[in-house]
Specification:
Length: 904
């Protein structure tokens, strides 16, 4: 039988070469593409491993701190400390620090915002001040933030200048102008802070009025130092966020000690102690405020008053509408004001270097609702005016704008208090930009040093924000919260959380807001490291009962935020925030393993279908020979073995050639294919060829010998008249349904994969991957995906072309008869091309539908572009199969019509 097989292969050299070529292409493609998949898997694993480690591995928060949205999506908010003031005791912190495997446990205790005033002033124009008589000046300030979209005008302040003497009441604080005849007039009523129910943003609270006498200075009376120029200016009410840390743990976690640019680093238990009513505590101040805001102040001279003005709120309300002559305009920034504040804290400004924390405020977290497009919309809140009635400070005008956080006041509520007042003492300045940089693809927020980046997500928002990010301003309840400005030690907390002065609601018993834990011995996403992290996290949860999140292997995930319009000009904004997506590394590694299996199966299926089609063509081309052998007495098992033997021999030869070709080809493509993997093509080719030939060999041996020697083209049935060339083409396709299905399915597999890949690339713009690390991996392996899909589509197209070629050879006599009956070459070619188009349309439509469903299920959404991509995939499949059918159509011209008709 072996000799017969060899003779048959030699005698049918053309058919053998065609079958050999088909199996060679399939096995070579199998080897190259599996090598590409393995290379992509290794590269992906390497990328994930390189970006696995972040600043810390475990985030510990108070019980119940995880929001419902975080729980649903497996994320951690970037501003996870927002709204968390205490909740973890010192005992729990020490318990976590001594758990085996904990390398660093870095706590942070959020205290709250205190409002500190930085005054920036300028002298009144000397030439104008020298004018005789009375002068009245008006100062108006507009606060500009949120990239210039928000503009809030503060109630005007007034400066009255008189040549007459002024006197200040010893007890009342009222300033009176001394008039001729021993008379006097009230010019500056006493200005105290308001109380309920007055508006903290109205003139009574916001206007800073002054009176100055050319005769004896600013209403100080005789014997007091004279003021040469009363000046004018702007008062910045800067919200300063205070947080406490363990200096040693923080230095080991993020290198804060190396970010100090002036002074020295913090040392635990290094306070000044209590001196009188003040209890000083050391602070490390940020070099910048983190706010994006500026103020435009304008000085105007009003009409000369005929009589002394009383500068009362009613008078100011009337005067604010009157015109004035602008003398000067000044622009100041939040950073300029913050530098003034740093000088004050360092003892180089007013207050003797001490600015007591007379009150502070804590703010709650932002709450969200889902938008119709799947993003998040922050919910606005309305804080009562009473939250600002502290009796000790002025509030910034920004707090009248839209707010998203509930604000709680901590201040003296009665005339009596117990315990000292906390007062910061500046020991050093740190630059947040110098804190240790971590991998941006696996970055987790440290929680204190930088504001959360809210980037514009569409063209309108980019125009509104001038291409920049939305940054915080002086609004405590604004969407983007201010970063920590003053860092102190845990030992300073008793002074800052003195309930005797700061009232109820302070967390003296459980001051810590979060603990960031780094686990020892973690090298990457290997099973041992993951188990070490899981074990430590489990121990923390069991021993403390706190909320524990494993953030090792996490990656920032863009989340769309629909910010409503503000009250003072800020338009609705569509923003993007990077939330922390947990478990991304493990998910990617699991997914890449699954994708490798899917790709392997995809390649194997397409190759098997292609070989099956080639084997079917080879067997069908020998039906007469098999019929003759059957007539000569060959049994069906012997015929079956002969056919399978021929196919296995061809598969063996193709496998050896494929292995030889695959190694240099994979090397040229920069892929990793070992000789063992290349050698695997030999048994794969033999098995695929043999298995693919089982069905056609079995069918060939089941036919009756005479029928096999001369089979009818179509079994007898009910006759009908095809409707033109298209109808005849459809009938020809139906005549061999098995063969047509094989070709259509081969193409459908490739088109389905193409649809999914195009959907990920164009319809979802990478959103299917989600996190930054996932997107980076997707970009890395996408070239391999396209190579695999292109090969699958190419094999499918070749399978369709094979189906058409075999049909043309089997119906050669029919086509010759049609030519003899007067059919033109163009009509015959159109008939063949139409057959290819029908098979291609069926396969492309089925593949696009399957790919459409898979992409929609995988992404959880169905954008309109997805259907456009599916339609384009169908059109592409139809076009390439139609083009592939042109080759068999051209072969019609070379058919010997007379010889074929003579045979019939």
């Amino acid at each position: 039988m072996g000799r017969l097989t060899w003779l048959q292969l030699r005698s049918q050299a053309g058919r053998t070469i065609a079958l050999l070529t088909g199996i060679l292409v399939a096995t070579t493609a199998f080897t190259v593409l599996t090598a590409a998949a393995r290379t992509a898997q290794l590269r992906t694993t390497g990328t994930v491993t390189a970006h696995f480690r972040a600043a810390y591995d475990i985030l510990v928060r108070p019980r119940g701190a995880r929001s419902a949205f975080e729980a649903q999506t497996g994320t951690v908010q970037p501003n996870f400390l927002s709204g968390i003031y205490g909740g973890i005791t010192m005992a729990q912190y020490h318990e976590i620090a001594k758990i085996p495997g904990v390398q660093v446990a870095a706590p942070i205790a959020m205290v709250g915002y205190t409002l500190l005033i930085a005054n920036i002033g300028w002298p009144l124009p000397a030439a104008d001040l020298a004018r005789p008589g009375r002068q009245l000046y008006r100062t108006s300030t507009t606060w500009v933030s949120e990239a210039g979209t928000s503009r809030i005008t503060q109630p005007a302040s007034y400066q009255y200048v008189t040549p007459r003497p002024l006197r200040v009441g010893r007890y009342s604080g009222a300033t009176r102008e001394i008039l001729p005849g021993a008379r006097s007039a009230l010019v500056c009523p006493p200005q105290g802070l308001i109380s309920p129910p007055e508006n903290p943003f109205g003139p009574a609270a916001q206007s800073l009025n002054g009176c100055w006498s050319k005769a004896d200075g600013y209403g100080l009376g005789s014997g007091a130092p004279r003021v040469s120029n009363p000046g004018w200016g702007v008062n910045w009410v800067i919200p300063v966020l205070i947080a406490a840390i363990d200096p040693d743990a923080e230095a080991r976690l993020d290198g804060l000690s190396h970010a100090v640019v002036s002074g020295r680093y913090l040392a635990e238990n290094a306070g000044d102690g209590t001196a009188g009513v003040l209890s000083t505590f050391p602070v490390l101040a940020a070099s910048g405020s983190g706010m994006d805001e500026y103020a435009v102040s304008r000085l105007q001279r009003l009409a000369t008053p005929a009589s002394p003005p009383d500068l009362s709120p009613a008078w100011m309300k009337r005067e604010a509408l009157l015109p004035g002559r602008t003398l000067a305009t000044r622009r100041t920034t939040a950073q300029q004001a913050y530098r003034v504040l740093l000088r004050i804290l360092a003892g180089k400004g007013g207050h003797g270097g001490r600015d007591a924390v007379l009150a502070y405020w804590s703010v709650g977290p932002v709450r969200y609702r889902r938008s119709g497009r799947g993003g998040l919309v922050p919910l606005t809140v309305r804080n009562r005016w009473s939250v600002w009635y502290t009796g000790i400070s002025t509030v910034s005008m920004d707090n009248e704008d839209t707010q998203y956080r509930v604000i709680t006041r901590h201040a003296l509520s009665s005339g009596s208090y117990s315990g000292p007042i906390a007062s910061p003492r500046l020991v050093g300045i740190f630059d947040p930009a110098r804190i240790r940089a971590f991998d941006p693809l696996s970055e987790v927020p440290l929680g204190e040093y930088e504001p959360v980046l809210a980037s514009p997500a569409n063209a309108a928002s980019r125009r509104a924000l001038h291409g920049g990010d939305l940054l915080p301003n002086q609004n405590l309840g604004g969407y983007v919260s201010q970063p920590v400005d003053l860092v102190t030690t845990l030992s300073a907390l008793p002074a800052l959380q003195n309930a005797g002065y700061y009232g109820l609601g302070v967390h003296a018993a459980d001051p810590i807001s979060a603990i960031r834990v780094r686990v020892a011995g973690v090298a990457g996403p290997d099973p041992l490291s993951l188990e070490r992290i899981r074990e430590v996290a489990q121990q923390i949860a069991v021993r403390t009962g706190l909320t524990v999140d494993i953030v090792a292997g996490s990656s920032p995930e863009p989340v769309t935020i629909g910010l409503p319009a503000g009250k003072f000009g800020q338009p609705p904004l569509t923003l993007t925030e990077d939330w922390v997506k947990k478990g991304v590394a493990v998910t990617i590694l699991t997914a890449v393993d699954k994708s490798s299996v899917v790709l392997f199966v995809l390649i194997l299926v397409v190759c098997a279908l292609f070989v099956a089609n080639s084997a079917s063509a080879a067997v069908r081309g020998r039906h007469r020979e098999l019929g003759v052998l059957a007539c000569l007495g060959w049994t069906r098992p012997r015929l079956f073995a002969a056919v399978i033997g021929e196919l296995a021999a061809v598969g063996l030869a193709a496998g050896l050639l494929g292995a030889a070709v695959a190694l240099p080809l994979t090397a040229a493509l920069g892929l990793r294919a070992s000789p063992a993997r290349a050698a695997l093509a030999v048994p794969v080719a033999v098995v695929v060829a043999a298995v693919a030939g089982l069905a056609p060999a079995w069918l060939a041996t089941r036919a009756a010998p005479v029928q096999a020697a001369r089979p009818p083209v179509l079994a007898a049935g009910r006759g009908h008249q095809p409707g033109g060339i298209t109808g005849m083409a459809a009938v020809n396709v139906i005549r061999t349904p098995g063969r047509a299905i094989v070709g259509a399915v081969s193409l459908a597999v490739g088109i389905s994969a193409l649809t999914v890949l195009a959907a990920v690339t164009f319809a979802f713009h990478g959103d299917v991957v989600g996190s930054l690390l996932g997107n980076a991996v997707a970009v890395q392996v996408r070239g391999v995906d396209y190579v695999a899909v292109a090969a699958a589509v190419a094999l499918g197209v070749l399978a369709v072309a094979d189906v058409i070629s075999l049909g043309v050879r089997e119906r050669a006599a029919e086509l010759a008869a049609l030519r003899a009956l007067g059919w033109k070459e163009f009509s015959l070619s159109r008939l063949v091309v139409t057959e290819g188009a029908i098979i291609g349309l069926a396969g492309a439509a089925a593949g696009a539908a399957a790919g459409l469903g898979a992409a929609a299920w995988f992404a959880g959404q169905q954008p309109g572009r997805l259907y456009v991509i599916a339609a384009v995939a169908v059109a592409a499949g139809l076009a390439v199969t139609t083009a592939a059918a042109l080759l068999p159509a051209q072969a019609l011209r070379r058919m010997p019509a007379a010889h074929l008709l003579a045979e019939e």
